[in-house]
């Protein structure tokens, strides 16, 4: 995998364009999966289950979850990076508002009332959009969600650039969290076909997008 440094000022507008486009794709993909209610992504599903078990607000659980992943990322890279931490926090806050707004609009439009087969297809399309967006903003590497940052660190530091393996390993913490909560409550929430599709295919889809979507865009300024 070629790794470039974003050193030319002339490249910055192009990188920002890629980044804005990827944020829109990711927000739309997540909004689709949320509004269709056919299974949340694993990190979100873990937060939902912890929220049910503790009676705490989901927004707080998501924030704590993201903060813990930031700490894990810093441990894995072996040094404090203010740029990484601030970028993760900015992404977490702004992204949650975008997803909330778009999912609300989709619910208002009645997307949840579509026939089940079409909802399943759209839910899988949502996962594809998420994976494509992750591929783009990981390559741009300005700021990203801490969970996607974790996947990128694992991918290039431990798994020789393999996105499928890195994605599966990055899913271990939420899977463990769901398992622990289930052990106490005997209940599981927010798991459905979309969750399974993401678990099996999201990493591979990121790798495909690396090659097929903006193929001239390479990973910039990796800090692992």
UniProtKB/TrEMBL annotation:
<dbReference type="InterPro" id="IPR038750">
    <property type="entry name" value="YczE/YyaS-like"/>
</dbReference>
<dbReference type="Pfam" id="PF19700">
    <property type="entry name" value="DUF6198"/>
</dbReference>
<feature type="transmembrane region" description="Helical">
    <location>
        <begin position="158"/>
        <end position="182"/>
    </location>
</feature>
<feature type="transmembrane region" description="Helical">
    <location>
        <begin position="188"/>
        <end position="209"/>
    </location>
</feature>
<keyword id="KW-0812">Transmembrane</keyword>
<keyword id="KW-1133">Transmembrane helix</keyword>
<protein>
    <recommendedName>
        <fullName>Sugar specific permease</fullName>
    </recommendedName>
</protein>
<feature type="transmembrane region" description="Helical">
    <location>
        <begin position="12"/>
        <end position="38"/>
    </location>
</feature>
<feature type="transmembrane region" description="Helical">
    <location>
        <begin position="58"/>
        <end position="77"/>
    </location>
</feature>
<feature type="transmembrane region" description="Helical">
    <location>
        <begin position="118"/>
        <end position="137"/>
    </location>
</feature>
<feature type="transmembrane region" description="Helical">
    <location>
        <begin position="89"/>
        <end position="112"/>
    </location>
</feature>
<keyword id="KW-0472">Membrane</keyword>
